[in-house]
Amino acid sequence: MLGQWCVFGAAQKLKLEVQLVWATNDRESPEPSHKPVEPAVLKKLKDLPLKWTNYFEVNRHEFEVPASGVVNVPVSSKCSIEVKRLADTTMEVSFIGKGKPVEKRIMALPRGELLVYGGNAPNATAWLVVLKRLE
Amino acid sequence: MIAYETQLKIQALLDDELSPSDARRLAETLAQDPEARALLAELKGTKAALKSFEEPFTLPETREFFWSKIERSIQAQPERVVAGAPLWVAWRRFLVPVSSLAALVLLALLTLLGPGGKGPEFEAALSDPGAFTYRDYSTGATLVWLSYPAENEFAQEEPTDTIE
Q1: Burial (Cβ within 10 Å: 0-12, 13-18, ≥19) of residue B156
Q2: Is residue A71 part of a domain?
Q3: What global pTM score does this model have?
Q4: Is the pLDDT of residue B164 over 60?
Q5: Which of the residues A2, A105, B60, B152 has the least number of beta carbons within 10 Å of its own beta carbon?
């Protein structure tokens, strides 16, 4: 997975984490490798207007964005997150699905805040891509 | 069929007229109802189309020249003589602007120091017409709900009995 990341630039870096989360009302995930999301993320997800009661972490990746650099992180086989650093605290975040940009926004992501992309999945469940800043 | 009240709330959302609690409830509806999301996308498109047809109004002269004319006309007016006017009329000249300024300062303080600070709010997402954004400053979380993808994001990671 690491080999697929495209990193350009150097110098000062911004450390982020992206998690793929499955939202469901089932008490347990049918996939044993899924584990409940960490409490801090769970609290913020519960505060959002989402109807699901349980959130399972499917995978997570930590990555760094160099100054003036762009990082593309595959989250699943179909989607990825691309982060372009514009200034010290400002970045352009793109959600890319099936190789095409679906949504793009310029924002600052202070530590402790989350950017959550989501969408409906079959059987009244949902997928979430949670982006947070580590450093 | 979308309920009439929901249709009105979607329109109010686009016009920034929803209260934070209504916005929160509507976000839940939009997350669950593809018809409501389609209506939101359609109204957004209509609003954008109408806006693009608005003809810009240009002044026949430059902005600086326009304002300098106003300034000159104000200066050309003779100063009013208030001699002989009652005392309260003279005081009114000062009290009106001072009280207006005080009201503005009070309003600004109430806005900044009021309970809860900034509440949840929506923001239009541009790339995906079916998408909407919910941002809650109090929890520091931004949710972007996408119409993508139609199929399961976990297609290759879940047992087949959970996939359509």
Answers
A1: exposed
A2: yes
A3: 0.56
A4: no
A5: B60
